[in-house]
Amino acid sequence: MTTDIDPELIKDIKPEVIEASRADLMGGLLRAFTWMDQHLQKNLAARGWEALSRTESQIMVYIAQGTRSPVEIARALGLSPQAINQASKPLIKRGLITLEPDPVDGRRKLMCPAESGISIGIDAAEIITGMEQELEKRLGKKQLEVLRSCLADKWGDLPDTPPTKSNG
């Protein structure tokens, strides 16, 4: 989906910059994530699960991948630990996760999947497998393998300094 931009607003911007902004990587990744999350939510609802908010869904993904610390989940999502604490309350109330003492640091709690959390995780895994099969049909097997490989790579720490602005 592209958006037409008022030519008066962009008269001094190079055409290649405008085109790049229409097909940017970040926007594509966000659209892909939204597509995946909406598909997952729709299919979980079809299996009888109550809808999750986007943040709840992201918390469940991190827990399923083994991240249990609310502070680490907050850091990964760019949210405050307090926001994660608030977002986790409905998940706890619905029996999807529990807070357990951290065996290493008794002052901390860890987010763990509860029995229902394991059940929704199994359903989610089946749905995601179906989504990947659909993507393979749409993109082709090789393209999906390349995409999966690129996303699995370690991207490293964030750069210390932003790229320099070109004034050319």
Automatic annotation (TrEMBL):
Highest taxon listed in the record's lineage: Bacteria
Gene Ontology MF term list: DNA-binding transcription factor activity
Coiled-coil residues: none
HTH marR-type domain ranges (all copies): 45-144
Annotated protein name in UniProt: MarR family transcriptional regulator
